[in-house]
Amino acid sequence: MMKMMLCFSAVLWLLVAAAWGSPIGLLVHEEPCLAVRNSSLQLNQLARTAAREARNGSNNIDDFTSDLAWIETKDLCDPETLKHNPETCLEKLLHVSSSYRSAVKRVSEFEKCSKFASKLQPAMLKLQRDMRRCVGARARGGAHLPQQPSDWLEAVERWQEASLCRFTLDRLFSFSVLTARVFAVGDPSLHAAAAAHHGCM
Questions:
Q1: Residue 201: predicted pLDDT
Q2: Labelling 99: which of 90, 112, 132, 146 has CA 20 to 30 A away?
Q3: pLDDT for 131 beyond 70
Q4: So which residues are the signal peptide here (predicted)?
């Protein structure tokens, strides 16, 4: 009897999935990637506020030689590539998020940056956790999850701390914009479908 009930439940689940028009494989990783959409938007809002507050009206362009990772064209984060092969971009985003997490942790220790940067750490941790689940779910356990990069240990004079704070938070905000765009539809492989849908509006 129990076996029949389990079989019935499985068949019912398949019928519901078919009625929704969603491939079974998509449902496996759709929810973890939707979580990244929410956490990336949250980080984007916090990063924008932190960068603006750290600048305090200043238009100075701060530049440092750093080990911060960044997204490049070769990382294939464009919508068309995301549709067919999102893993390369997602793994790089995960690596870059780890790099920024280390950098933000460091500038949070600066007296003039602590009140801005410290607010970002919980959101960055949540984004990284959600992103790891999304990458792992998409690859069905076979994803190459990058290791946490070593902390950014370049020596900084005390008088440079405010500039480094602004530099780090500005770059984090730019990264958060890209991340929010990649996960705007939840599963990045749905970008093309979303674009087609909006084109019919």
A1: 32
A2: 112
A3: yes
A4: 1-21
How far, in Å, are 85, 113, 128, 131 from residue 119 at the CA level?
Answer: 34, 10, 16, 20
Q: Which domain holds residue 88?
A: 27-59+79-199
Joined together, the tokens standing for residue 162 give 């405010």
What is the count of structural domains for the chain? Answer: 1
Measure the CA–CA gap between 8 and 16, rounded to whole angstroms: 12
91: in domain = yes
Residue 64 domain flag? no
Distance CA 66, CA 61 (A): 15
Residue 16 belongs to some domain of the structure? no
Counting Cβ atoms within 10 Å, is residue 150 exposed (0-12), middle (13-18) or buried (19+)? exposed
Q: Tell me which range, 45-49, 60-64, 116-120, 185-189, is most confidently predicted by mean pLDDT.
A: 45-49
pLDDT of residue 137: 81
What is d(CA 173, CA 123) in angstroms, rounded to the nearest whole number? 13
| pLDDT recorded at residue 136 | 84
34 in Cβ contact with 186 (< 8 Å): yes
In contact, 15 and 99? CB cutoff 8 Å: no
Amino acid at 83: K
